[in-house]
From TrEMBL:
Residues binding GTP, per UniProt: 127-134, 209-213, 273-276
HAMAP family: FtsY
Gene name in the database record: ftsY
Descriptive protein name: Signal recognition particle receptor FtsY
PANTHER family cross-referenced by the UniProt entry: SIGNAL RECOGNITION PARTICLE RECEPTOR SUBUNIT ALPHA
UniProt domain SRP54-type proteins GTP-binding: residue ranges: 294-307
Organism of this sequence: Rhodocytophaga rosea
């Protein structure tokens, strides 16, 4: 079974697109109302409009560096085309954002999923408390399980009783085993036992929850390194994926967290959650651009299916879809 088969949802499904459109509503309303105001009384895109656009992108949490990159590309196109109206600005902005996401999410999700035949495929999930890390694990487990895969979860966030209990609840709800030693136990030994259990059960995927404390970087690095080393005693190339979960609604804080965790461990996939509750959906563009790590999942609602495989083309289409 290819790893793309892990997910039960078809990315082109009408329901998925509707859910994405709804989840990005606040971002779109905020962005296009500001862009509309910037173009009032303007027959063409001039320096003043571009200054306004720069401010709109920054306040949508696209990030300063990424915003300047987008503005520079648009300025180059304006200088060539000379005359550009509001609808043309929409089109060019859409094209440049799509291009940027394409450059930074070079591995399309489908090829990314089939890139390994590892079994079990081990995912170590990292991120600060409150970003929706354990919920993301539960939703992933549910979708993998629905697609007919054997899943094992490891409750290695042992410093927070709620995290262990929450993962056990998800396991019961989904119908997948959770390896837990309870609270205040060694996270590395939980991870070791979960991977060993995954091998014993001939599981397709093992997902390990880890502590979400942004304490000193040294402690974080040591803890994550230790977890990785003990898993490698069972499967030498584990974990195959280190998934960083970020809360999209925190805007610039998500950038800071991404910086901390990418320094602490080799993050190779991102999940950006809670996009439905915020006007800061631009954070997906900025984080993808600045960290050059593929955005693999986005969360656009409460339902299990609202954790979607990120498809850059569908995302940009939805972002620029006017009511």
């Amino acid at each position: 079974m290819g790893l793309f088969d892990f997910f039960s949802k078809d990315k082109d499904n009408k329901e998925v697109k509707e859910s994405l459109d709804k989840g990005l509503e606040k971002t779109k309303d905020n962005f296009f109302s500001k862009l509309g105001k910037a173009m009032i009384g303007k027959s063409k895109v001039d320096e003043e409009v571009l200054d306004e656009l720069e401010e709109i992108l920054i306040t949508s949490d696209v990030g300063v560096e990424t915003t300047l990159k987008i503005i520079k590309r648009i300025e180059e196109r304006v200088s060539v085309d000379k005359y550009m109206n509001a609808s043309e600005l929409d089109r060019i902005l859409k094209e440049e954002i799509a291009k940027l996401l394409s450059e930074n999410n070079a591995q399309d999700v489908k090829s990314y999923f089939t890139a390994t035949s590892a079994k079990p495929y081990v995912i170590m999930v990292v991120g600060v408390n409150g970003v929706g890390k354990t919920t993301t694990i539960g939703k992933l487990a549910s979708q993998f399980h629905k697609a007919g895969n054997k899943v094992v979860l490891g409750a290695a966030d042992t410093f927070r009783a709620a995290a262990v209990d929450q993962l056990i609840l998800w396991g019961n709800r989904v119908g997948v085993p959770v390896i837990s030693h309870g609270m205040n136990t060694d996270p590395a030994s939980v991870a070791y036992d979960a991977v060993r259990e995954g091998v014993a059960r001939n599981a397709d995927v093992v997902i390990i929850d880890t502590a979400g404390r942004l304490h000193t970087k040294v402690n974080l690095m040591n803890e994550l390194s230790k977890i990785k080393k003990v898993m490698q005693k069972v499967i030498p190339d584990a974990p195959h994926e280190i998934l960083l979960v970020l809360d999209g609604s925190t805007g610039q804080n998500a950038f800071i967290q991404a910086k901390e965790f990418t320094r602490a461990t080799e993050v190779n996939a991102l999940a950006i959650t809670k996009l439905d509750g915020t006007a800061k959906g631009g954070v997906v563009i900025g984080i993808s651009d600045q960290f050059k790590i593929p955005v693999k999942y986005i969360g656009v609602g409460e339902k299990v299916e609202d954790l979607q495989i990120f498809n850059r083309q569908t995302f940009v289409e939805s972002l620029f879809k006017r009511k």
